[in-house]
Amino acid sequence: MTAPHRIDTHHHIFPTHYMEKERERVLGVAHRLAPEILRWTPDAAVEALDRAGIATAVTSISAPGVWFGDPRAARALSRDCNEYAVTMARDHRGRFGVFAALPLPDVDGSLAEIEHAFDVLRADGIGLMTSYGDVWPGDERLAPVFDELNRRKAVVYFHPTAASACANLLPGIPAATIEFPFDTTRAIASLLFGGTLSRCPDIRFIFSHAGGALPMLAHRIAGLMRVRPDLLEKLPKGVMHEFTKLHYDVCSATSPIAFGAIRQLAGISQLLYGTDFPYWPSETTGAGLAQLGLAAAELRAVERDNALRLLPRLARSA
After folding, report:
1. How many CB atoms lie within 10 A of CB 150?
2. Does 75 map to a domain?
3. Are strands 247-249 and 54-60 parallel, antiparallel or unpaired?
4. Count of domains in the chain?
5. Residue 160's CB: how many other CB atoms inside 10 A?
6. CB neighbours of 90 closer than 8 A, spacing ≥ 6?
7. Range of the domain at 271
8. CATH code for position 107
9. Partner residues linked to 60 by β-bridges
């Protein structure tokens, strides 16, 4: 048992209406973890926080998200999930923050939900998927949404999913194993080359699982600038500048190789604690970090201080 002090920025919930409407889709993503998902309750989530020494977890909806092609249904599902998350946070005061879901790629619906999430629900940030069918977040059609999030200086958290074009490419291998890390990388590249990262400097972006394949591909992606001078207009400060501004949770990336790679790319100051509960046991990330030999100040930064810098309101409860 560790005294609760950590801040978990990668923690999932399963609202009642969401599971009633999308149970089969959710369990289809969960695969062998379906029993854990079905046993999930808010009280079980609090117990998991206590076991892992987590003071506060910021909740979000995991893949498959809330968008399934019907804008009206996605708007209703987003609102249901966000109202549930805020109620759960109030019922367990101090233990949960909220990353609100949006019905992207429905722009008008998303703009309305941003207003409700921040002005009515007082959410801590926004939780998005890395892609929506065949639309990635840097698509120019989504620019009004990110411009509004930039105006609000929002924290925007991305959780991976599998793009429709990449579903079941390797039969028998779950999408979470291969496709999720690569879709995270596609989302970052989309925001980069679409100009969103440089156009919206006041959004604080968080990406799951140490940025997926980004640490390996970062310099390869940056090399595109040498043969595409037209990209300088969208990236006046360069590719690596934009990568080092992003934040990355270290869920599933606490092996020496994975952690070393994202640390070299972004630095300790950009790394956040995340568990991916209940898909991963809540204790896994803490146990992994403890084996890395980090200095006490570095460990505290990853486990707590970096998150409080992004989300200072959590300091009152954490």
Report:
1. 16
2. yes
3. unpaired
4. 1
5. 25
6. none
7. 6-313
8. 3.20.20.140
9. 12
Q: Which amino acid is at 157?
A: Y
The amino acid that residue 207 corresponds to is F
Model confidence over 63-96: pLDDT tens digits? Answer: 999 999 999 999 999 999 999 999 999 999 999 9
- Alpha-carbon Rg for the chain in angstroms: 18
Q: Rounded CA gap, 175 and 181, in Å?
A: 9
175: pLDDT confidence band, cut at 50, 70 and 90? confident
For 133-223, where are the alpha helices, taking DSSP H only? 143-151, 175-193, 196-199, 214-222
Instruction: Examine residue 318 and state whether it is found in any structural domain, yes or no.
Output: no
Residue 166 to residue 183: CA distance in whole angstroms: 9
1, part of any domain? no
Residue 139 lies in a domain: yes
User: Which stretches of the chain are assigned E, i.e. beta strand?
Assistant: 6-12, 54-60, 96-101, 125-129, 155-159, 204-207, 247-249, 271-272
pTM, 2 dp: 0.95
CA-CA distance, 169 to 305, in Å (whole number)? Answer: 40
Long-range contact set of residues 14-22: C-beta below 8 Å, sequence gap at least 24: 14/40, 15/61, 15/80, 15/81, 15/84, 15/85, 16/84, 17/77, 17/80, 17/81, 17/84, 18/61, 18/66, 18/77, 18/80, 18/81, 18/84, 21/73, 21/77, 22/64, 22/68, 22/77
**Quick one: tokens of 26?**
């959710």
* pLDDT band, residue 33 (cuts 50/70/90): low
Q: Which two tokens stand for residue 34?
A: 């379906």
Burial tier of 317 (Cβ tally within 10 Å: 0-12, 13-18, 19+): middle
